[in-house]
Amino acid sequence: MNFIRKLTNDPLYVILAIVLMFIPFAFWVDSPRNIWQGLQTILIYQDILMVDYMYIGGPGAGILNSVSVGIFGIAVLKLSKVKVGGIHIAAIWILVAFAFFGKNILNSIPIILGAFIYSKYKNEPFSKYVAVSFFSTSLSPIVTHMFHIYENMPFIVSLILANVAGILIGFFLIPLAAQTAKSHEGFHLYNVGFAAGILSMFLAIIMRNFGIYIAPVSYWHYGNNLEMLIMCLLVSLILLTIGFAKHGKISLKECFIDSKIIGDKLIANEGLTYVNMGLAGIFTSLFVFFLGELNGPNIGGVLTIIGFVGIGKNMFNIWPIMIGCLLPVWLWGWDITSSVLAVALYSSTLAPIVANFGHIWGIVAGFLHINMAFVIINIHGGLNLYNNGAAGGFVAIFLLAIIRTFNKTKA
Questions:
Q1: At 87, is the secondary structure helix, strand, or coil?
Q2: Which pLDDT tens digit goes with each residue over 348-391?
Q3: Contact 303, 104 (CB under 8 A)
Q4: Comparing C-alpha atoms, which of 210, 197, 219 is closest to residue 380?
Q5: Structure pTM?
Q6: ω before 50 within 30° of 0 (cis)?
Q7: Cα 196 from chain centroid?
Q8: Is 312 helix (H, G, I), strand (E, B) or coil?
Q9: How far is CA 100 from the centre of its chain?
């Protein structure tokens, strides 16, 4: 009992326990032989958006890649001796989430190393930048792409080119993210995704001018919806149980009130945060299950939302945005595809809009977001995994000007 209490007192150990719980699910849905071969494929495959690792490597390999990246991220946080807060929980969960599509250890390490070098250049502790370094792996496909950019290039040259590109990304994305944060004033939670979107758009345009064309792709896994629902629900129920154990009885009214507050929730009320993580996980898992498929990107969306509950997301402030993303389905007859559901999940980056201005503006934000997301991916060509981070930044800036013109609420 003391061991369980000690385990749940450290948020990183909670995440580690949950990530390790993924392992039996990997071997439930795939064979050891397929998993081994799939992991090798994942590490070398060009993984621009949208490449579902559960598709190109198999479902078991996709899950175990997430496990390996999660363990690596937790180790980095422990070694950095950071005081863990909501932002770090969001950062580690987004590593775990996007390791289902686009991130792996090989294409993430150089970017994190670049951020480490930046901290030394500024003569500041790496713990100050560790969360941003995790978010910066949004551009990990560029590392893989640079490795494959010229087919006849010697292996060692390709390796050096890829790692140098990753280090430069990790170094320069930190000051760029600090600048972009001022533009949307915190009304957009995926700020590094916005910065990465701007950087990736410049890179894609320059590459095209040199005759190097990058285009988004669309590889989605189908076939393990029920197993993945069970996995996501189990994650959510564990978090819910920990929350109730820490906080005691919690009403939905408390959760609703909490949805109006954006900031570090883990430090403010750890028990309530875990409960909200569990509720958000259950809500989004069922949302995807009944409308589509829990494949790599959509599992990643559920896990991302769970992680960002630590800094402000909540079941009550994300649903209007998700509904807004589905408006084109009803207005123009769009099919509810996996890509539509993925955008609906990741559009929850605009939760601060709902928290500050209400549900109607949240629906408007979601509607604008899905239209922007499907356009902006063609500009950066899929180099930025946080495509919704890029789209959400532009939507937040635009919508803030409109809201403040017509809304008397000060925020």
A1: helix
A2: 999 999 999 999 999 999 999 999 999 999 999 999 999 999 99
A3: no
A4: 197
A5: 0.95
A6: yes
A7: 13
A8: coil
A9: 10
